[in-house]
Amino acid sequence: MRPLDCAARGHDNLTGLHEGASGRRTGIVVVDDDALVCRWLRSIIEPQPDLEIVGEATDGVTAIALAGQLHPPLVVTDIRMQPLDGIETTRRILQASPGTRVLVLTTFALDEYLYQALRAGASGFMLKSASPEELLQGIRIVASGDGLISPSMTRKLINTFVATPSMARDTPALPTDVTGREREVLIAIGRGLTNLEISAKLHISMATTKTHVSRLLTKLGARERAQLVIAAYESGLVAPGRVR
Fold first, then answer.
1. pLDDT at 19 > cutoff 60
2. Domain, as residue range, for 98
3. Domain for residue 216, yes or no?
């Protein structure tokens, strides 16, 4: 049995997806400077027939090197680390391995760490207080290509903007190829509306709404819906104030 600690290690000749007894397995790199958290993560992930820890790191620098070597489908990382925190680690991991998705674990519900990590390209967020079942569900959601940002969490993110308007401080302009309809969809996303609510508000089909959302993600270089919320605020389309 492998030792239950977070050493800087990676398995050789790995591509991220592996054949297990029950089929394809998703390779995961775990990053945390707390040995107890590493043991907790391994005890939860290792027994799963569809998941496998292929690398471990105790710091961001090692995690970036592992991601560049292994190109894992998923990295699960702490947010408070030295010398690189989880935000900068996320940014550099995605540069080293663009196909990798990052799930951030934090002890803080919603603060500027979450906001900054979203901007860095993280695909999901979970509290370390989550149950094993919740953690596994979150890992599978993010690994499958979805973002772990529910409408309720999006609205909490909006509330963070409302409470701290100074967070939206860069105010970049939208790309010139964003259409008028796409701007309307982006405003609705920024106000926390779901695709169903956007369809009803703008009197368009669900398929059309999804197409607009997909195009916005591409044009704005966003990986997740919550990053569109940030873009709506930073571009000035939506101002901190009334959410809905």
1. no
2. 9-148
3. yes
